[in-house]
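Predict structure. Input: Secretory carrier-associated membrane protein, 327 residues.
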Amino acid sequence: MTHNSSTMSNFDDNPFADPFSEPSIQQATRNTTSGLEEYDPFSGKPPTQNVPTTQIGNAGNPPTYVQPTVGVTNQPAVVNPTPTPANPPAYTPSAQQQVTTAEFQRRQEELEKKAEELARKEEELKNAGAGAARQDNWPPLPSFCPVGPCFYQDINVDIPLEFQKIVRMLYYLWMFHVLMLMLNILGGLGMFIALADGATFGLAIVYFALFTPFSYVCWFRPIYKAFRSDSSFNFMVFFFVFSFQLIVSIINAIGIPSMGSCGWVTVGKAFSSGYTGLGVFLVLIATAASVVAAAMVYAIIWVGGRYQFDSKLHSRKYIRYYQFFGQ
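Output follows.
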């Protein structure tokens, strides 16, 4: 008991006494404060180093606990918008949007033509259903003529819209061919008067009398009916007769003497004989014959390509038909 009482006597009996009143703690606090007070950050002198004999870290400045704030704050959340460029890129319309007024007008005209064609075909079907036969209107002969028209021809009604251009071209080609035959008669008459070439003049009349009606009946009417009803037989008739007509036109452009044509050889004969005026007129006829031959070459190539395309298209349709229904 004596030992325990001597040991407990070393401690302070007052538990509520100030712990910083001890001499060692006060000495450490005084040295730390004096070191901070002597330091001047704006002076060039280094601070004095007072190293205390006994230091207790952060004894004079205990840490302060700050309770974090949890919950909704008074300031709302702000979202910064994405900055837009000051000068946006210029708008350039695409090629499909650049449709001019002329394009709209062209499409409108095509639609009007198509509507007119359908209206005419409907009227023709109504007349045919009612038993009214179509009256022949070609050739357009005068009323006092004893012979009336022999055929009905209306490209706008009979021919589909996509083929009307080529049919009109062939019709104009036939008319130009007839005009060339008429000029050939006049050229033959000049050869008969100047050079006493009666064979050329006589054959020129025969060619005009034969080729004018037969060319219309034998190759224009078949191609007209071929495009009207999509007839392969009429296409074949056209190719056969038109090929023969093309060969005759090339011979007419050459102008073999005494063969009934005033071509380039006949032109040379007229100039060599000293008939300059006749030679100039024959140049006009030979040029017309050459244009007719060139146009016929173009026409037979175009129609042949179209016929091959349609044949392949029909063959594909038939193949698909048999593949579908043959199973």
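The CA atoms of residues 70 and 76 lie 15 Å apart.
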